[in-house]
Amino acid sequence: MPRLNPGVFLGLSELRTINLATNRINSTNFLIDLMPFVKFIDISANQLWSLNEMLGDSINARYANADCSLEIDLLDNPLSCECEDLPFIKWIRTTRVNLTKVEMVKCTGQDGQLQTINSIEMSGMDNYCSALLTCQYLRNCIHTGTGGSSSSLPLPLASQVVYIPLEIFRKETSLHPKA
């Protein structure tokens, strides 16, 4: 059961608990607003890299002005903490939803290392991802790394990875004839 039909819970508005644990689900494309009374969603031990952004937005909208009584279990999923998953990581760090054992929720960075999501230094990751996106957009960068690793997380960025757009690098390092 890798994917759920988006309308799987349509008409089941009285649901209180949803247990989708251990089903090899790799996508969460259902909306919480279809289930106004749900208190617990167990999506642990699946194949989730992140949560669908629509689900996160739906949860945040539902609980924006209220005490959050929803709990979600994300444990034991191969969550990713790469740049494309930055919105998901920020959601985990800021949501009002109760995440089961949030201090134990882990993700894998671009260097393949497993780490807890709470241990990620967010400003460093923002800087790293912004620099990476800029270089990918320009398709014109050089990449240098230190410490034997070319793209390590957790950050701070400055000590591990530097992306420099080539045009800036060329201007700053051009050889000028000596007078």
Description of the molecule:
The protein has 179 residues and is α/β, with parallel strands linked by helices. The protein folds into 2 domains: 1-120, Ribonuclease Inhibitor (Leucine-rich repeat, LRR (right-handed beta-alpha superhelix), Alpha-Beta Horseshoe), CATH 3.80.10; 121-179, no CATH class. The protein is built from 4 helices and 9 strands. A hairpin with a 5-residue loop joins strand 6 and strand 7 (114-116).
Distance between the termini: 72 Å
What is the quaternary state of this protein? Answer: single chain
Molecular shape: globular
Query: How many DSSP H or I helices?
Result: 4
Please identify, by name, the CATH architecture of the largest domain: Alpha-Beta Horseshoe
Helix content: 10-25%
CATH topology call of the largest domain: Leucine-rich repeat, LRR (right-handed beta-alpha superhelix)
Mean pLDDT value: 76
Order of helices and strands: EEHEEHEEEHEEH
Radius of gyration: 21 Å
CATH class designation of the largest domain: Alpha Beta
Q: Structural class of the helices, strands and pairings?
A: alpha/beta
Main β-sheet, spatial strand arrangement = 1-2-3-5
How many strands, which pairing sense, and closed or not: the largest β-sheet? Answer: 4 strands, parallel
CATH superfamily of the largest domain: Ribonuclease Inhibitor
